[in-house]
């Protein structure tokens, strides 16, 4: 199973205790996967069409628990693939259809429809708990997540800009800064920051998935930290080797061109030690001297030798 499916499986099992939250989650699902039509008696009816079996189970649970309604499920093979199936969900009783439509503020008591530009009524998602349920329902209906081992990406595909903006505002209530991008004819509400994806999983109350994602993030951070240290050490080694090679070249040039007779005893001693110990560090060279000195003292003497070599090169040119 994919990580995205694992998240949805966890959310499917979560049934809000408050009826108002169940209605908010139903409203999100109906808004994204539902169609309001009339039955054979001219009564309003909700039709849900989806390929997502997880969503089928969640919708069934919500309708049964919040409205004591029964859902009929029709399954047919998908057009694009023999492995996929399309599920059509209908609620048997006209009274239950009407109760749900009234609860989600699409239908009033006189039978009039109120579709506010296709978005969910803000009266349904006023409370923080209902906003959580609304985001959860939207993700179950039209969301997906990438495998965090590969990359961090969370998205919910919305059919209109106004619906996308409503979802974005609900996330922002919890300080989750989701972005919106147009993809073909859809509006995609997405998050790419790992810590923000952790936050949105917490908002939806997908706590098992949250812990799994945090474990992945910790392991990735550890690997990145180790790689940075290894790269830093490798760079330092390369720098040391390059510097030692330059020092040795300068010393050998002095020896071959003018000899060490003109050097001070201190410079001659460090020069001969460097020739004899080309791989030694500055600290090690300092400890080998007849009168040991620190790294800065050794570096000063070697730098002085390089200046002498450069001076001889200039004179000869």
Looking at CATH, the homologous superfamily of the largest domain is Homing endonucleases
Rg, alpha carbons = 35 Å
Low-confidence stretches: none
| CATH second-level architecture of the largest domain | Roll
Structural class: alpha+beta
Helix content: 55-70%
Strand content: 5-15%
DSSP, total strands: 8
What is the count of DSSP helices, taking H or I runs of 4+ residues? 11
Succession of helices and strands? HHEEHEEHHEEHEEHHHHH
Supply the number of structural domains.
2
- The dominant shape is rod-shaped
Q: What is the first-to-last residue Cα distance?
A: 73 Å
Which sequence of strands runs across the widest sheet?
Answer: 1-2-4-3
CATH topological fold name of the largest domain:
Endonuclease I-creI
Q: Main beta sheet, described?
A: 4 strands, antiparallel
CATH class of the largest domain: Alpha Beta
């Amino acid at each position: 199973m994919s990580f995205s499916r694992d998240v949805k499986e966890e959310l499917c099992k979560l049934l809000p205790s408050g009826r108002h939250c169940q209605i908010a989650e139903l409203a999100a699902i109906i808004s994204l996967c539902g169609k309001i039509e009339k039955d054979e008696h001219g009564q309003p009816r909700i039709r849900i069409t989806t390929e997502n079996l997880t969503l089928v189970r969640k919708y069934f649970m919500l309708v049964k628990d919040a409205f004591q309604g029964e859902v009929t499920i029709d399954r047919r093979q998908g057009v694009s693939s023999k492995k996929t199936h399309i599920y059509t969900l209908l609620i048997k009783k006209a009274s239950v259809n009407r109760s749900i439509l009234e609860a989600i503020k699409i239908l009033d008591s006189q039978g009039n429809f109120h579709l506010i530009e296709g978005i969910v009524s803000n009266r349904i998602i006023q409370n923080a708990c209902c906003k959580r349920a609304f985001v959860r329902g939207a993700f179950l209906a039209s969301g997906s997540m990438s495998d965090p081992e590969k990359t961090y990406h969370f998205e919910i595909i919305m059919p209109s800009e106004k619906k996308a903006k409503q979802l974005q505002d609900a996330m922002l209530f919890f300080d989750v800064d989701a972005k919106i991008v147009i993809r073909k004819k859809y509006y995609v509400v997405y998050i790419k920051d790992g810590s923000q994806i952790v936050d949105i999983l917490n908002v939806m109350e997908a706590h098992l998935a949250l812990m799994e994602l945090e474990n992945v993030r910790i392991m990735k951070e550890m690997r990145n930290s180790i790689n940075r240290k290894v790269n830093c050490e490798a760079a330092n080694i390369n720098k040391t080797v390059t510097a030692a090679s330059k020092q040795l070249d300068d010393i050998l040039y002095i020896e071959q061109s003018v000899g060490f007779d003109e050097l001070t005893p201190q410079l001659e001693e460090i020069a001969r030690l460097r020739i004899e110990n080309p791989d030694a560090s500055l600290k090690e060279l300092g400890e080998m001297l007849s009168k040991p000195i620190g790294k800065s003292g050794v570096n000063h003497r070697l730098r002085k030798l390089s200046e002498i070599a450069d001076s001889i090169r200039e004179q000869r040119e």
